[in-house]
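dumping this here so i dont lose it again. seq + smiles for copper (II) ion
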Amino acid sequence: MKKNLFSLIAVAALSASVLAGCGNSGSSSASDSSTSAGDYTTEVTVNAKSFEFSPSEIKVKKGDKVKLTLKNTDGAHGLEIPEFNVNLQKNGSVIFEADKAGTFDFDCSVMCGAGHSNMKGKLIVE
Ligand SMILES: [Cu+2]
């Protein structure tokens, strides 16, 4: 019974990833389909401590594929940019495409203590 349940979950997970893989195949002009391969044009590292981001202002160009790395130097913080579906909840990197210009707020997505709500920054796409 337990084993059956496990294989059911495995099958579900597998089909989910297959479906996700198919979702990308619609783009016409892309020369390769390996969008998840980790190619990027700009790299930004944001250090987080209690209770501040550094830098608290990130500037990129519209169209950049941004590799954003969060480094916690003190405490445990997250980095969330809702506009670009970015949400790092621990040290790590994510790649997103800055496909719209403007100024977007980012903030800490992990409840980290008294100064949590002060942890804010700006992403400027120009
Ligand atoms: Cu926080």
